[in-house]
Amino acid sequence: MNFTFSYPLYDMLFIGIYLIVLSFIFGAVFASFITCTAWRVVRGEDWKMGHSHCDTCGHELSTTDLFPIVSYVALKGKCRYCGSKVPPRDLIFEILLGLLFAGTLALHGFVDAAVVAALTLEVLLLGLSLADWDSGVIPDGFLAAILVVWIMTVGFRPDVQKFAIEGVIASACVGLLMAVGTAIVGKIIRSKVSYGTTKLAMCLMLFLGFKGSVVAVIVGVVLGVAFALVCKSKKRKVSLAPAISLAVIAALIFKDVLAMIAPAV
Ligand SMILES: [Zn+2]
């Protein structure tokens, strides 16, 4: 017997739009959660517990104040209790992560271990980039979470052996290059340098394989220089986690695009 699932085109279109809207909402909700988490980690608060509160008046926020995007628009970007303006940064990241979630699913076409890993990474990368930008430190908890995502999803990849071996080799090579580079920079500027970005890159290369790592390194170097110049011009500590995060997201998108236009490569 030959089973073929064929939905009418109209239904397929409806299901596609439904899934994309749903993934946008999930992206916005996760962005709301992770921006709050990053903010708490940076300020040394307990990230698991307690209600969110207004940064100006300290009033505890109710559930209706916490809907991503919707609450911000409904309250016109102001605190319901004291009327102070809430910066639009979180709103922007909620929209961006929503779009990234929707784009990732639309590009990949179906849900598998690679998509679950990509979506989880996108959430964690947003969190650690914000933490690095605000404090200059990439919290180890985020790196541990990235490793957990790899361990939990690697076994479900169809090409598990190739994926794991390529990832480990790419991680070791990029890690070595970055560690040497960081040490040289440390000698030149004669001050203590942090290996946080090296550790971050090593964790992320595990997901990319050879081709993805090459893309990530090229994009990462270009964006890294751009971010370093922006930080210098603003006279603030150089934060490279956002550059590395964007490079890895570019590499993940590149992998999906490559799989779509040239599946055999
Ligand atoms: Zn307030």
Q: How would you describe this structure to a colleague?
A:
This protein is mainly alpha-helical and about 260 residues long. Helices cover about 70% and strands about 0% of the residues. The chain has two domains: about 1-110, no CATH class; about 125-265, no CATH class. The chain is built from nine helices and no strands. The radius of gyration is 20 Å and the shape is globular. It binds zinc ion.
Supply the key terms.
265 residues, mainly alpha, 2 domains
SSE map:
Blueprint: H1 9-42, H2 70-74, H3 89-108, H4 113-135, H5 140-154, H6 160-189, H7 196-205, H8 209-233, H9 241-261
Compact summary:
The chain has 265 residues and is mainly alpha-helical. It folds into two domains: 1-111, no CATH class; 124-265, no CATH class.
Average of pLDDT: 91
β-strand percent reads under 5%
Helix/strand order, N-terminal first: HHHHHHHHH
Q: Can you give the helix content as a percent range?
A: 55-70%
Q: How many separate helices? A: 9
Q: Which class of secondary structure composition applies to the elements?
A: mainly alpha
Rg result: 20 Å
Count every beta strand, where a strand is a DSSP E run of 2 or more residues: 0
How far is it from the N-terminal to the C-terminal residue, by CA?
A: 33 Å
Major sheet: none
- Low-confidence stretches are none
Number of domains: 2
What overall form do the CA principal axes indicate? globular
